[in-house]
Known about the structure:
Largest sheet: none
Oligomer: single chain
Pfam families: HTH_Tnp_Tc3_2
Subcellular location: Nucleus
Number of strands: 0
GO biological process, one term: DNA transposition
Protein name: Transposable element Tcb1 transposase
GO molecular function: DNA binding
Amino acid sequence: MPGKRARRHFSQLSEFERSLIVGMKTAGWSTHRVAGQVHRSECAVRNCWEQWTRKGTHARKTRSGATRKTTRREDRRIVRQALTDTIVTRSTIRADIGVVIVPQTISRHLAEANLKSKRPFRALPLTPEHRQLRLQWCQARSMWNVTDWQKVVFSDEFRYVLGTDDNRVRV
């Protein structure tokens, strides 16, 4: 199985393998013999044994950064809840999960799942038939004067936002 040994050469040692290495080396086995038994390089066995003799532990180093607040299962639940209910908010998801996390964590999990918020359509895109009908309407009224146009009520409005939040619904 030389292919298997080459593939596993660069992966992390599991806790079980570390315990085996320490046990075999304590029993007096050579580094070469232990490496052949656990299918790892002699360098990996030597490093594990040196850590055991120097620090008295074979556990891996702790990772830097903040500890995870959610499990993989909770991460999947966040994504599933966002997919099933399109107008759910981050605070609602956080309350349903039952774990104390910041809203940015939920946003990050959704972004990792390629889910991004977007504004819903204000109107459906126009089809070629709709465009033709609008053009005919405009051409029929192209000769109107000001008094004719004063009788028309325009309902098309645009919203200008001076602040940071426009209170629009995002899905």
